[in-house]
Amino acid sequence: MVPIPFVISLLLLVLLGVHHSRLQQTHTGRLFEVALGLHALGSLLVGLRWWLDWPGILPFAAAAAVAMCVATYLAFRSLGGREQEFSLSSDWMHLLLPLLVLAARLVEPWLIDFVLAGSKLVYVFLLFKLIRRAPESLALVRLDWIPQATMAVWGTLFLLLLSVVIDLVIAVDFALNAGRFAPHVVSVVNSLMLVVLAFLMVIIGRSRSLDSEPASLETGFDASSNEPDQATVEDDQAENESIFGQLELLMLESQLFKDPELNLQRLARKMGVPARKVSRAVNACTDGNISQWINQARIDAACELLSHSDMTIQQAMLESGFTTKSNFNREFRRIHNSSPTQWRVQNTNTG
User: pTM for this structure?
Assistant: First the structure.
């Protein structure tokens, strides 16, 4: 029987092959490809460690796990804007962590478990910071995919936390039982986690819009914007209302919501306003976020088509700017508490 880690490694490579063409179209997708490749490598090394009894492989498996965390975080971070893409000059410290794991092996082998767990916790914290800044930190995600992208980041964060727990359980098993149960824990739990995490990475890799327009220094996610704001609450509200008024006018005149690749950065670029200000203006002036507001406009447009034309639901969905049926149905039900088919029947009956 082929060990589970080897099967998982093969499945991850197949997953890479299936989604390669889509992921290669964006910087984010390419980073997720690297992360998936590191997943496959890590699973292969785990298989060699436990089923071929090669303990010398352990430091390299741990280094691959940390490198996967690094690549995953950098890929998620790149969704905040073009200026958040990987740069060796500013991100070189991330590349030191896998080397730190290997160095721990030279000092004290037992240190590897603590360095590995500590490294994962660092990236749990960094992912949490990204979630707190959403949707600004997801400025390159297509607006109808914002909920899925946010859930994917949350899912990755919790999986990393779970993997820390698993690493500690294995360490305790070695201390108390000479590692008797470790292979079973590794094969079942870690394999399931790898599959789920790989799925989440493919989802968010596909959620990024294929935005090829030149980037603006003003519109991306500004992670360093920590300067105190001296404006009064009244001034902030006036600015929010002004920006929101410009946004409503832009939507009315150009119907940008029909662009299926529309994201926060592209919208901010059209307005000449930083993405974070656009997002905050919508939050302040509506009952939802930028994604919900754009989806409301799309659903309204779809309803207009459904009630005044013989378009199919699929055609109305695509014409109004949605890219997937699941997103369209979910948002339609959120707004109208019914499916598009039910709404059309009711509208026809009452018209």
Answer: 0.79
What b/e sequence results for 231-253 when a residue is b if at least 16 CB atoms lie within 10 Å of its CB, and e otherwise?
eeeeeeeebbeebbebbeeebee
- Residue for token digits 């160095």? 103
Structural domains in the chain, CATH included, are: 4-207 (1.20.1070), 233-350 (1.10.10.60)
- Four-point Cα dihedral 247, 248, 249, 255, nearest 10: 90
Is-cis flag, bond preceding 135, omega within 30? yes
The answer to whether 116 touches 69, Cβ cutoff 8 Å, is no
| Segment among 83-92, 93-102, 250-259 with least mean pLDDT | 83-92
Contact by Cβ (8 Å): 197, 73: no
Best CA proximity match to 43, nearest among 60, 19, 23: 60
- Taking residue 334's Cβ as centre, other Cβ atoms within 10 Å add up to 14
Q: Which two tokens stand for residue 126?
A: 């960094």
Per-residue confidence (pLDDT) for residue 225, from 0 to 100: 43
Phi, psi of 141 (to 5 degrees): -80, 135
User: Per residue in 150-180, pLDDT tens?
Assistant: 888 888 888 888 888 877 777 776 667 665 6
Per-residue confidence at 121, pLDDT binned at 50, 70, 90? very high
List the beta bridge partners of residue 141.
Answer: 208
